[in-house]
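Q: Here's a chain of 932 amino acids. Please give me its 3D structure as tokens.
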Amino acid sequence: MGFLDRFRPATGLGHADAEARLQAVQSLPAVDLSLLSPVVTGDTDPRVRRAAARRLRDPRLLSEVAAGDADGSVREAAASTLLGMALEGKDEAAALAALAGLIEARLVSAVARSAALEPVARAALARLTDDRFLAGVARHGEHAALRLAALGRITDPREMAAVALKSGHRDVALAAVERVADRDLLASIAERGRDPGAARRARALVRGRDEESDDEAKTPRAADREAPLRLIEEALALSRSEDWDELPARLTALKDAWIDDIPEVDDDLDERFREACLVARRRLQTWQEERAERERRERETEERLGPRRRLCEAVEAVTGGDADAIAEVRAAWDNLPADDSPEAEALRGRFESGCLAIVEREAQEARRAGEAEAQARREAEMKDAERQRLDNAGRMERLCAGAEKMIASDKAVIAKLERLQREVRAALQTPPPLPSQKDHDAIVHRLRTLNTELTPKIQSLRETERWQRWANAAVQEELCALMEDLARASEEEGADAGGAARGLRELMERWKAAGPAPPDRSLSLWNRFKIARDRVRARSDAHDQQQAEEHARNLVAKEALCERAEAVAASTEWIKTSEAIKALQAEWKAIGQVSRGHEKAVWERFRKACDQFFARRDEDMVKRRDEWSRNLQAKEALCARAEILADSTDWKNASIEIKKLQMEWKNIGPVRRNQSDAIWNRFRGACDRFFERFKNRDVIERQAHVVDREALCLEVEALAPAAAPVADAPAGNAADIPATDGVAQEAVAAGDPSPTAPTPSTEEMVGRLRAALERWRQMRHLPPDQMAPLNARFYGAFDRVLAAHPEAFHGTSLDADANKRRMEDLVTRVEKLTPSSSGDGPDLSSLSPAARLAATWREALATNTMGGRVAEDGKLKAAAEEVKRAQAAWQRLGYVPEPHRSGLERRFETACRHILGRRGAGVPAGASASRG
């Protein structure tokens, strides 16, 4: 934030009262609409955010609000603003950005139909996928090319037929008719199509002709005018509306209602509706143009007078004498363009008055500050003088301590001692001010002592240096001789230039390491050494040039390797490229040295390219390993689920889920190569095991039912006496169950009666037998070859239990004797109701079937002749009622052993059928036969 920004006037957008903030948003000038950005996202009141969303013109921010605001009305207001920008915007980029923020398909469809800019409408059409919205664009789109494009994307035949039926654009209607294949839909278009040409084409297609018939009369259409008139009234109301912010959304909703809710409409009503919508849109465009003009004038006024007004406010806001602030404000005022308007002159006077007040305040503050500054300066000078004396004392102390240490050292250097002596003598000549006189006297005494001790120390070192220089002269003479010998050797035929160069470098290093010679011999020795050196260098320069050329060639070769390495550094062919880079590294090692100064740079370049590839390869390997691990876990989970389903008997659901698992397996990526075959064989084995069992499901289910019945047999046999024989297992026993049902075999084995099982009580035995009998009767039936031995085994065991404990079942539903007597009584009751035993006719049971039929006819004829039909009907009705009561009592009977039950059951059923058959015919069977 700059200085001037601190003095901007408050807008009221941060007021604590929500009503004040709402009024501030509504009255904010157009030039300051950017200030609404934090309001639309951060204000706590939905009304304020809603008002800000209606005025804001930032598509990106409006898109965020439309998608994420917590209040639905705020989201709706943001979407409405975006819709208006997309529909009526003249700036293509802004309109496209607004379209991107629209989420609802109906709003996108409205933009595709009615956007003023064709690129915006085309972008909206590209986002539509629902055939219903595509059909709306094809029928009512503003742009012809987009109408045909929308028609080409429709896949639903009914929506295609609706376009052909309702579209008022002939090109779209005809194209839609050509794509309708259903004859009923074509017939509907031919009868009620809005476009005559499309209707004629539909009629021609229905009749199988390619030529259109222009003489056929159009069938009048009946349309409900109430709903269209209501929508036209609403469109007229919108054309007079002043709610400009809501007008685009309301106009779009009204068009959607016209399209979706009015299936058929007359051309005049459609024209009236379109005219009303056009008036509303034109008024909206006029208002938008007026608003843009008003905002332009406000911006011009703000651009012209706004900087002056803000500078005046900045000057008036300054409370003290801030010279820098005044200078900044004054410079900003001087840089403003000239303006002679009365408003600018008034602001100039206001600015000058503010500056004059600041200058006067600054002068007063300067006087007061001057006095305080003088006092502070005096105090600071005293403190600086005291600090300077302390610093001088410390400096003198360090000088004396350093001199004493150097005098005591055996490795002192004469140059440092001479410099130290000069510093000591300068301090003695002009001692610096010190904190006290005592400190001054002590320092002066120490400096005099040090000066006295330094003089003999320096003289001794000078004598030692002269002897050292004499020794160095001998060393330099030896080096000169060696260099001369090397020069003579290099000048001989076939001399080793490389060796001469190396010897030259070695002797030069030794010369640099040798100390200085006496001044009178130093120059002559150096000239002698230099002459010999130049002779050697003349011979070695050619060798150096050759070596430099070789190094340059090596540099070119290594740079070529760098380029090749950089070319493949971004490759994803890991194995092939890895081998190529290793070959490049081998070539690199075979190349010699390069010129000095390039070794590090070219090596770093080559290594960077290699490291880049191998780092990418390692990163990819880590990612692939992670992906392989995730894929392996996913496939192991599928294997576990498939292995569970492999033993399922819920065939339908299990087969569906197995197939779903197989589809999921295909969508999972690869795993590590050494694990791929194992995990696939595991999954395929589980699937194959299930489908093998699925193929034999009928046998498995039947064997499961056999096992259930055998288990129940074992349960009843466990209650029978131990000495009683057990029937042999039938052919369909557990031994014949396929290997896929091992669980069922275990269930049968678990049912074997244990010889040590405790004997149940009487009540428990009765309850268990009764439950076993009920379960046996409710079990699924089996084929006769399997059911017969199982029935024999079950009822045999059941009878043995009853015979072994007759007293336990006495008086219960399992009391066989009592049940048998009740069964015989019921059979006797029903048989007495038959004509042969009722006493109303002769006994016909001993006659043959033919004789019995003849006797029955005679009896029937006699009955009809004597007028006894009514009495006979009453007897038949009473007998039928008695049979029904007997049948109900029969169902309540308890258990009776099979041999007795089957015989009595046949007698009972025969008697019941005989009586109920006569009752159903209304006359005795013999009479009916005689009449037939």
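Q: Can you summarize the key feature?
A: Residues 4-214 form one domain.
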